[in-house]
Amino acid sequence: MNATIKDIITVKNRINKLINNTPVLTSSMLNKWLGHEVYFKAEGFQKIGAFKARGACNTIAWLIENNQRPNHIIANSSGNHAQAVAWASKIFDIPATIYMPDFSSKVKIQATSSYGANVVLCESRAMVDEKVIQESKKDDVYWIPPFNHEQVILGQGTAIYETLQEIGEVDAVFAPCGGGGLLSGSLIAAKGLFPKTKVIGAEPLNANDASMSLQKNTIQRLTSTPQTLADGAMTLAVGDITFEYLKKLDEFYEIKESEMIYWTQWLTHLLKVRIEPTSALSMEAAKQWMQKQSKKKKIVILLSGSNIDHVTNQKIWKDDMLLKKPSL
Amino acid sequence: MNATIKDIITVKNRINKLINNTPVLTSSMLNKWLGHEVYFKAEGFQKIGAFKARGACNTIAWLIENNQRPNHIIANSSGNHAQAVAWASKIFDIPATIYMPDFSSKVKIQATSSYGANVVLCESRAMVDEKVIQESKKDDVYWIPPFNHEQVILGQGTAIYETLQEIGEVDAVFAPCGGGGLLSGSLIAAKGLFPKTKVIGAEPLNANDASMSLQKNTIQRLTSTPQTLADGAMTLAVGDITFEYLKKLDEFYEIKESEMIYWTQWLTHLLKVRIEPTSALSMEAAKQWMQKQSKKKKIVILLSGSNIDHVTNQKIWKDDMLLKKPSL
Question: How much is the ipTM here?
Answer without folding.
Answer: 0.91
